[in-house]
Amino acid sequence: MAKVSVIIPSYGRPEFLQKSIQSVLSQSLQDWELIVVDDNGVGSVSQVQTQTLLNEYRDDPRIHYHIQEENRGGSAARNIGWISASGKFICFLDNDDEFYPEKLKTQVQSLESTGLKMTVCRFDSFKNGKKVRTSPKVPEMDSYLIPFALGKINFASGSTLMISKSLLEKVDGYDETFRRKQDVELMIRLLVEESLHVDDQILVRLNIDDRANIPSVENFKKFQNLFNLKFNNLFETFPQKAQQEIKQYEITELAKVALWNKDWRLFLRLYFTGGLNFTTQFNLGADLVQKFVTYYLK
């Protein structure tokens, strides 16, 4: 089997990082290297704590630790990692998530058997140590581009993706101007270039305890503008119905951010007079109720 390089971009949350590292150590496929890219900034509290943790693994030659001089964001950290990687295949692992033991072996087998260059898998979501959700099965499609762009499929590709290094080189990796949803931006470009294999197996555990990364409304608007500037030309090639659904999706996402920030006035304005059609209003309401039940009542 081909060698796999696992990249962990680490910013804050050193208390979670050890479980992420252990999940790589526990893989059934052992031909891997692990590159932890510390993006906290030299001398910061989190950087010192992260380095102390990594010192526990200094005797394992497969584990490499790279310290960024200053915080440059997740995209830059991931690029530093995969560019320096020696594996044929690359996986990214957020520093609060975990791989299940068969993750690397299963995905290498998928890529080698299909001849494709990227694959994703299903995942479990845990909150406060309790499983609250398992991602649904994704039906096989000729192209996942439009459903993914419409937000109808969540691959959680920050931690579920395995991709050939050659394909990352082809698309120039992550766009470092994106400080949010870097995995979404990258996946759209990848889906334009290549076919995707979607594995039905559940191979990743997402730990969703941390809510500190909720963006402000203004920052989210800036992200939306940046996203639209980059992909408008692509979206204009989609069928008219899909273009309309993308606009509905953008309003829905902004309404959710307003709600998470307790900006009730903006949320209500977007919900009732922001241009959402009845179907989208209903689906948004149902989604919010489901999330409340799943993440706060269970």
How would you summarize what this structure contains?
With 298 residues, this protein is α/β, with parallel strands linked by helices. The protein has helices spanning 14-25, 45-54, 74-84, 103-114, 145-149, 157-160, 165-171, 182-193, 217-235, 240-260, 264-273, 278-297, and strands at 4-10, 32-38, 63-67, 89-92, 98-99, 118-127, 130-134, 162-164, 197-207.
Structure description:
- It comes from Algoriphagus ornithinivorans.
- This is Glycosyltransferase involved in cell wall bisynthesis.
- Pfam families: Glycos_transf_2.
- One of its GO terms (molecular function) is hexosyltransferase activity.
- It is globular, with a radius of gyration of 19 Å.
- The chain is of the alpha/beta class and 298 residues long.
- The termini are far apart.
- It has 2 domains: 204 residues, Spore Coat Polysaccharide Biosynthesis Protein SpsA, Chain A (Alpha-Beta Complex); 81 residues, no CATH class.
- It is 48% helix and 18% strand.
- β1, α1 and β2 form a beta-alpha-beta unit.
- Strands 1, 2, 3, 4, 5, 6, 7, 8 and 9 form a 9-stranded mixed sheet that branches.
- α9 runs antiparallel to α10 and α10 runs antiparallel to α11.
User: Structurally, how many domains make up the residues?
Assistant: 2
The ordered string of helix (H) and strand (E) elements is: EHEHEHEEHEEHHEHHEHHHH
Task: Report, as a whole number of angstroms, the end-to-end distance.
Answer: 41 Å
CATH top level of the largest domain is Alpha Beta
Count of β-strands: 9
What would you call the structural class? alpha/beta
**Range of helix content:** 40-55%
